[in-house]
Amino acid sequence: MKQPSKTSAVSQKILDSRSAYDQWAQSYDTHPNPTVAMARIALARDLQHVEGLSVFEFGCGTGENPYNLGCRGAASLVGADVSAGMLGRARGKLDGMDAHLHHINDMETSFLMNETFDLIMAILVLEHVENIDRFFQLASHRVAEGGLIYVSELHPVQSSMGIRAHFQDEEGIEISTHSFHRTENEFIASAERSGLRPDFIRSWTPDEEVIAAEPKTLKYKDQQLLLTMCFVK
Ligand SMILES: C[S@@+](CC[C@H](N)C(=O)[O-])C[C@H]1O[C@@H](n2cnc3c(N)ncnc32)[C@H](O)[C@@H]1O
Question: How far is CA 188 from CA 30, 143, 144, 195, in A?
Answer without folding.
Answer: 33, 17, 19, 11
